[in-house]
Amino acid sequence: MTLSVTDLSCARGGMPVLEGVSFTLEPGRVLVLRGPNGIGKTTLLRTIAGLQPALSGEITGAEDRVAYGAHADGLKAALTVWENLAFWAGIYGTPLERIKPALFAFDLYPLQYRQAQALSAGQKRRLSLARLLLTGRPVWLLDEPTVSMDAASVGLFAEAVKAQCADGGSALIATHIDLGLETDTLDLTPYKATPVWEFADRAEEEEFFA
Ligand SMILES: Nc1ncnc2c1ncn2[C@@H]1O[C@H](COP(=O)(O)OP(=O)(O)OP(=O)(O)O)[C@@H](O)[C@H]1O
Fold first, then answer.
1. Residue among 156, 155, 175 nearest 34 (CA)
2. Which ligand 1 atom lies nearest to the CA of residue 43?
3. Cα separations (Å) of 25 from 17, 33, 138?
């Protein structure tokens, strides 16, 4: 099933951020979100994930079909790597046998008994991404998934995305790096919302903050 976004407008902190965003994401495809810092990539992903309401527009094919991987790792610090994955499997009703392949996919097998709080930043990121494999969800929504990861880990991630797509899934990924995958690209720059209000000049801004 295709994820379809039509004429979507969304806000952050009560301020409109993006207006009139439309795209489709077909099964088997990867769509990379581009645009400068602050343009609204996170806001768009959160809106599609259902974590915040849209201002207007329509999203179809999301609902309980998406797995959202945020910037933050969102791990349970005191649980081991294996326990974190088991916790996640429990939430999604995924058989525990699926944990082992997820450990291998992100080179976490040797670390499986280590508490999450004792992992390096890149290892935490790998664990966070390994959880996606336990969701069984066909559409991945990922926000800067490769931050802190070395080249080998980025390669593992790219392989996981490829496998997800080969399995009929898809991924919408906000990233500034080249994943070395065949992807489509959506630059959000043209969809920047008209600001409700802006400072007329520097003097007005300085006066406001004085
Ligand atoms: N918690 C928040 N409260 C209010 N405004 C926010 C909040 N987080 C972000 N914003 C604002 O919302 C706008 C969109 O931010 P968003 O994080 O979606 O952009 P982004 O494209 O993901 O940026 P980046 O590339 O830096 O991650 C920005 O103007 C930002 O300053």
1. 175
2. 18
3. 21, 12, 11
pLDDT at 202 > cutoff 90: no
For residue 116, give the CATH number of its domain: 3.40.50.300
How far apart are the CA of 191 and the centre of ligand 1, in A?
Answer: 14
Residue closest via CA to ligand 1's atom 29 equals: 38
CA neighbor of 96 nearest in space, from 111, 112, 107, 110: 112
Ligand 1 midpoint to CA 33 (Å): 14
Best residue for ligand 1 mutational test, from 10, 15, 21, 42 (most atoms within 8 Å of Cβ): 42
Number of domains in the chain: 1
Confidence of residue 196 (pLDDT cuts 50, 70, 90): low
Contact by Cβ (8 Å): 155, 106: no
Instruction: Give yes or no for a contact between 173 and 31, defined as CB atoms under 8 angstroms apart.
Output: yes
Strand, coil or helix: 27: coil
> What residue numbers bound the domain in which 26 lies?
3-209
Q: For the segment 51-109, what is each residue's pLDDT rounded down to a tens digit?
A: 999 999 999 999 899 999 998 888 999 999 999 999 999 999 999 999 999 999 999 99
Could you give the CA distance from residue 3 to residue 40 in angstroms, rounded to a whole number? 19
Q: Say if CB 188 and CB 9 are below 8 A apart.
A: no
* The pair of three-digit structure tokens given for residue 101, joined into one six-digit string: 């392949």
